[in-house]
Every structure is written in C-alpha cells, then in structure tokens.
Input
Amino acid sequence: KQEVTQIPAALSVPEGENLVLNCSFTDSAIYNLQWFRQDPGKGLTSLLLIQSSQREQTSGRLNASLDKSSGRSTLYIAASQPGDSATYLCAVGPLYSGGSNYKLTFGKGTLLTVNP
Amino acid sequence: DAGVIQSPRHEVTEMGQEVTLRCKPISGHDYLFWYRQTMMRGLELLIYFNNNVPIDDSGMPEDRFSAKMPNASFSTLKIQPSEPRDSAVYFCASSARDPTYNEQFFGPGTRLTVL
Output
C-alpha cells in the first residue's frame, strides 16, 4: 500500500526566505506526482504535476523535483511571500496506468506560514 | 468556466438522517472523483467515475455510502443513514482525459457535520 509522508508538518518563515518542502513515498511505481495548495476552508489548487519520466517542473517561483528511485520529491519556493501561506499537499499516483485503476494517494500536508 | 461546483457548502444533520452531496464537474471533463478529508486520515479517494461509469469504489467506507453520476454534468454522493463519524469535508474533483497526465481540479468542498 502506498504511503506518502510530508515533513515538516508545519513551517514558519519570514518573508523573502527561500524554502523547501519535502515529500516521501514508499512505492516508487508511480506515474506522476502532484503538488497542491489548500487555503483554509477552500478546495485544493494544483500547482505542479511531474510525470515519472521527468525530474522537475517549474512554475514561476515554484520548482518541484522528483527522485523516483529514492521515493522523494521537494517543492522549492523562492522569495516567499505572505500570500504563499497555505497548506501544501503532495500526492502520488496512479500505481496502474490506463484509467482502469486510479488512486491518488495524498500526504497530510505541510502548513506554511510566511510572516511579513 | 465556473470550475467544479459543489452544494451545499455546509450541511449539519442529525445521526440517522440521509445526506446528499452534489457536484457539477467542469464541462468536458471525463473523470470525476469524490474525496473525503479528515484531520485523522487526511484526504482519501472514495470513488471515481470515467464517462459517467463508476470505475473504482474501493474507497467507499461502508454500504451506507453510495454515489451516482446520471449524466456528464452531475454527480451525487449519498450517505444513508448518516453517523457522527461521517463528519468531514467532502470534495469533488474532475479531470480531462487520463488523470495520469492531466491535473485534477477540485471544488470548494462540502463541510458535513453529523450530530
């Protein structure tokens, strides 16, 4: 059974700092990994999706890397801003391709607070 | 596009009552997912549909839970009878084509409280 762990559970940083969020997974037989952002009382917003054949994806100040063999991914946020404050979730899936069997397994998230 | 629409946003009910949650996916999306989020267990996939057909319902916790998708623009998740341990936030998400390659778009969720 796939398990996804995110460390730390909470992180508080001053504005402008560069930071890294970590995600690890137990089964390397994945086809993609996604990073989501969740604001309080809101749904999830997809930030980056990395295919298993890729090593990283970038969007603006965000960079996500994937090391499938070691079961790890990192989300790098450059020049953090108070508006980045949210919970960041990592999810892996699926174990099987083709749409006949699909389960996105989520970590419990890292609560990020960026202080002005 | 208005995104994934869920209703109601909040639901408070008493134990034993029937609860129906509703979802309208993004137009043109072929996949629809129902998730449940709790503090203890995090975010869990309950069931997903492809072209209105349920593909995998192994995440549905008990027979008290059922989901339908009568057409491409509407899905329901029903709990009958509801229990206090069903209290959670329920999310609906949709995806275009194969979710392996396409991101999922989430609705705002329904916060369910069963007293």
In short: The mean pLDDT of chain B is 92. The longest strand of chain B covers residues 42-50. The interface with chain A takes residues 4, 31, 33, 42-45, 48, 50, 55-56, 59, 91, 93, 98-109 of chain B (CB under 8 Å). The radius of gyration of chain B is 13 Å.
